[in-house]
Design goal:
By secondary structure, the protein is mainly alpha-helical. It has a single domain, classed as de novo design (two linked rop proteins), CATH 1.20.1440. Helix content is 79%, strand content 0%. The chain contains 6 helices and no strands. The protein has helices at 2-60, 65-79, 84-106, 109-113, 115-150, 154-160. Helix 1 (2-60) packs antiparallel against helix 2. The longest helix is centred in the N-terminal third of the chain and has 59 residues, at 2-60. It is rod-shaped, with a radius of gyration of 24 Å.
Length: 184
Amino acid sequence: MGYVIAIVAVVVLIGIWVIGAYNGFVKMRNKVEEAFATMDVYLKKRYDLIPNLVETVKGYAKHESQTLENVIAARNMAAGAKTTDEKVAGENALQGTLKSLFAIAEAYPDLKANSNFISLQGQLTEMEGEIANSRKFYNAIVKTFNTKVEVFPSNIIAKLFKFTRKTMFEVEEAEQRQNVKVQF
């Protein structure tokens, strides 16, 4: 009789652990989704700013049409991304084209002094800070989730219920990791 009680107690404890671990994964998955959605809001705001910025630059830099087209194409690719991997790739492409856009602005003193351009550039700079913060938060949540997916014994529950690693939001292009060269 004592063995039966012990076996039942072990089964109940394992059941409680499985339920707790499963619920923990669901909570973490929801946090990852929330963090990504928050970042996505900032990205959307930036996508909305870019056409205004490009139109402002267009008026001053008519012969720079290829760069402006590249910025819009990268914006559309990033805005239309469906998966996290596509979003990361699109964002990396957009970062590179925005650098080109601001390089053009440097060549046009009248543009740099234009109040509309200055305002848009300030809004974009502020938005970039918000995006960077939301990426850090997202990556921290993803790191916690991925760790839980991989460590024993929670990895058993992860495999059993098909919880898989999430993609970190990382810079993929080596040029973006280089120090910025500033000259006066």
